[in-house]
Amino acid sequence: MNERFFDLKKDRQDRITNGAMRIFAQNGYRHASTDEMVAAASISKGLLFHYFKSKKGTWEFLYEYSTRYTLLELREAQRRRGCDLFEMYRQLVRVDAAILQKYPYMPLFLRRADEELGTDDPKFKPEIPESLAGAVADLRLNLVIEAQRPPFLSEQDARRISQILEYTRYGLIQELLALEEAAGSRKHSAENADAPDLPFHVQYEERLFEYLSTLRKMNI
What we know:
The protein is mostly helical.
């Protein structure tokens, strides 16, 4: 990529990053359109290619940036390695909320990108550092497995609970993003439309905390 991208004002960097990330997250690499990316980012296609050279270059930048950014956000959770299972999940939810406030599509992008990395598509051969491939998903799973859990829960049980909560996590993000986009459309079509009561990332955090509280009450 062109390092001059980082000379842009941060809000413009984030607008470009979020715009491209949304299109990749929603459509996957193969069906992602650079026309939609530049429309979402409010820039020209020439400028997108000036900074990232190609669609593949854009994807590679986003994957590396998202992975490094998320790993940095996970530092506090890593410092609490080995804590209670539910406290670790609460830490992970806080990390998600902090990321979603700035990059609403980052978790969805990384999930889809990791799935794409696992394919043998000859047309999709990204060049990313080997140490970063799947690093976020691996770290999150390890933090859960290493957490203290009730004696009646095996490591396999912890893995299954982690999988259930991951499905819940991604489903909730998609639900809240759809609601936010619908609310945004209504706001643009009606002058006095009410804004959502709480920001997207706050709703996410509160809902996940409620789910974790319910599981704890059930002695899971």
